[in-house]
User: Fold this.
Amino acid sequence: MRWSYSASRSFRQCQRQWFFKNIVANAKAKDPFRRRAYLLGKLQSISAWRGRIVDDVISNTIIPSLKRGACITLNVAKNRARDLFDRQLAYAKRHPITDSGLQVSKEGDDFTLLHPMEYEGKLLDHEIERAWCEIETALVNLFSLDVVKHILKSSDYVVSQRALQFPLMDDVTVLAYPDAIAFRSDAPPVIIDWKVHTFGTNDAWLQLAVYAIALSRCKPHSDFPDGFELQPQELTLYEVQLLTNVVRQHSLEEEQIIEAEEYMIDSAYEIACLTEGKKYVDLRVDDFRSAVHAETCKRCAFRAICWEESHVHRNELFSH
Assistant:
């Protein structure tokens, strides 16, 4: 089983949501129910979509330019964001989720499925306009944050969205994708997590602690420094709230590392006890608790299949 911080949050919000995302959904399955779950799992809220565009511009335009030593301007970043925004919006309005020939891997950067198109059948103009305004705000703020610019420019090199894996316990592997890791020859690396939240009040120390532990325990990638080895408390961690223009620096004490380790183990154990190593065919949706809060159901990508006679075993649902 693969454990991630995002999956743990999903499981604690709604076990059924985790079940559909991590057990049922399968891009290669011939079973139409599993393929439907896979595509529903690609649905994004408007806010998640605009956050993904900001992440894309940082990871695939800004950081690569810095790696090459090229000058990257705010206008270049905004133009890239606008191009992605317009193409993805046009794709999302088509909403080809029921297209039997749809292959996500072949759709490229355009691929976007939005939650309101599936469940409301439309996108509200004022929400789309606000999404673009917030993308612009996030990029303007990024270019104004001197501490972040200094880290990115002064580092030997920066990697984006690099997969970090390490064994946590029997049959459980932790998988983490830090937004950015800045390697420096004269100091330990810096992990940066970009947040595009309207309020930005949540403290992301636990998520960053998981990333720090993952970086300290993973098998080093080929482009990591020779002899790469460190302890989580050596890392500098930055939570960058791009909409509120707030940067929070985190440093880990031993107690926080222990707390983060306990969180990972407790969460993984809870999931493992429920699934007991069983495969998809051996599990029932009724084995998993539904969400407590109605708002969780309202936002859920899997609402349609969860509410479809969820008390009936899946094999019976397949015949409909």
